[in-house]
Amino acid sequence: MTLHPTDKQPVTKAQRIFLDLRSKILGGELTPERHLTLRPIAETYGTGINAASEAVKALAAEGLVRLEGKAGARILARDLNRIRGDFILRMAIECETVRRVTDVADDMQLAALRRIADHVDALFEEGDSLQECRRLDVQFHDTLASFSGVPQLREALDPLLDRLVCLDQTSSRNEEIPGQKHMEVFEAIETRDPNQAVEAMRMHLEHSMHLSLAELQFG
Fold first, then answer.
1. How many helices (H) and strands (E) does the chain have?
2. How much of the chain is in helix, strand and coil states, percent to nearest 5?
3. By the 8 A CB rule, do 198 and 100 touch?
4. Alpha carbons 52 and 141: distance in angstroms, whole number
5. How far apart are CA 216 and CA 171, in angstroms?
6. At 33, is the secondary structure helix, strand, or coil?
7. Long-range contacts of range 129-132, CB-CB < 8 Å, 24 or more positions apart?
8. Strand partners, 73
9. Lesser CB count within 10 Å: N end or C end of the chain?
10. Is residue 143 within 8 Å of residue 189, measured between CB atoms?
11. Cα-to-chain-centroid distance, residue 144
12. Which pLDDT score is estimated for 2?
């Protein structure tokens, strides 16, 4: 079961609840073992029980909560092995994506990627707009996949982006950790050398994986 919204349809009440609760769980605002009860959720978001139930079931499908009877669910501690596996799968998808984009992207597509990469890196350096930074991070990787010419790559990547980008940068910017440079990935694509682009993407995602796992393991 998934409640990930699409570009073509408005966000439903259940999707709105799901997206907000998932963001709070992944961001650490809602902690493991906390109980989520359907009626208070429905009251908080001004919806009916059915929408709240649908949202909680979608959270369970992503392994974020454990359903407990008909009344609600309990937030689970995050499984580091599963998260590591998701990153490895993402790496395989995005390395193939960037290899194809390096071969097929036209000048207008490259210009679009440059704008997004420059913007997200600037926001990360400022350290003041975490949510916008995450949004643009997703946009950069999603746009890359859309330019690959293989719709299945984007379809496989999107749910991974939804789960993993929220894990990255969960706390304020750490001065001791260098920012993830999307421009480095873009510049590698611009060389039109697929091997260089793949290596840049691999390093970019390995950095993200190690940073996210360290945040989750050590806080």
1. 9, 3
2. 65, 5, 30
3. no
4. 30
5. 11
6. coil
7. 130/169, 130/172
8. 36, 67
9. C
10. no
11. 14
12. 52
Q: What's at 156, amino acid-wise?
A: A
DSSP 74: E
Token match 């350290």: residue? 127
- In one-letter notation, the amino acid at residue 186 is F
Q: Residue 85 corresponds to which amino acid? A: G
Tokens 């009251």 belong to which residue?
Answer: 43
Mean pLDDT, the chain, whole residue set: 87
Higher pLDDT, 127 or 137: 137
Categorise residue 174: left if φ over 0, alpha if ψ from -120 to 50, beta otherwise: beta
Sequence-distant contacts of 30-33: CB under 8 A, at least 24 apart = 30/75, 31/75, 32/75, 32/76, 32/77, 32/78, 33/74, 33/75, 33/77
The residue to which tokens 């959270």 are assigned: 59
Query: What Å distances lie between residue 206 and 32, 45, 197, 203, 213, CA to CA?
Result: 26, 37, 14, 5, 11
Locus of tokens 């009877």:
69
| CA 215 – CA 219 distance, rounded (Å) | 5
Per-residue pLDDT for 174 more than 50? no
* Count of residues in the chain: 219
